[in-house]
Amino acid sequence: MTETTKTAADSPDGSSDGSGAAAADELRTLLLSRIQDVPDYPKPGVMFKDITPLLADATAFGALTEALAELCVRHRADKVVGLEARGFILAAPAAVRAGIGFVPVRKAGKLPGATLGQAYELEYGTAEIEIHADALEPGDRVLVIDDVLATGGTAEASLQLIRRAGAQIAGVAVLLELGFLDGRGRLLAALDSAPLEALITV
């Protein structure tokens, strides 16, 4: 099993050249300049990455939306799944820009009507996420978008949920990957060779 991972040097059309690398570096610099480190939040010893300054900057948010929309097109996605809660903020405008539909993945009990659920393990206990039972069509290619990839538990559960709905995985895209937590390693089996795209890795 081989994981396909695009790098910052890849241009939007999938080629790798100097101009693509320069554009990716410029985007990364812009986005990083708008992400604020908040020490000791939500508990002592944790450095929280606050993306709200990025969202408040129209230029940075617009560039992020464009980059995510380009990934939707590159990976031929029919639908975008956004993970609760900040994933909604990034995924919905990217889906609109790409001209495809947006599907929210929510915590259990938050969606009305018939749903599909998927439980997953936490450090202490379990949690469950859901989508509407009719949100995805068999054969849909689905790109999962979230703000941060940390341990990968929610993203892994979302991939399992998408497959249970009969849809295909187009990939996972995140604004920020926390490489030291190895969420990428956890997602390898669930991705099954689909790409994992991180605009920034720290």
From TrEMBL:
Composition bias, Low complexity: 8-21
Pathway the protein takes part in: Purine metabolism; AMP biosynthesis via salvage pathway; AMP from adenine: step 1/1
Uppermost EC category: transferase
Domain Phosphoribosyltransferase: 64-176
Entry GO terms, CC: cytoplasm
SUPFAM superfamilies (UniProt xref): PRTase-like
Protein's GO biological process: adenine salvage; AMP salvage; purine ribonucleoside salvage
Its biological purpose: Catalyzes a salvage reaction resulting in the formation of AMP, that is energically less costly than de novo synthesis.
Family: Belongs to the purine/pyrimidine phosphoribosyltransferase family.
Protein name per Swiss-Prot or TrEMBL: Adenine phosphoribosyltransferase
Originating species: Streptomyces violaceusniger (strain Tu 4113)
Lineage, opening ranks: Bacteria, Bacillati, Actinomycetota, Actinomycetes, Kitasatosporales
Gene that encodes the chain: apt
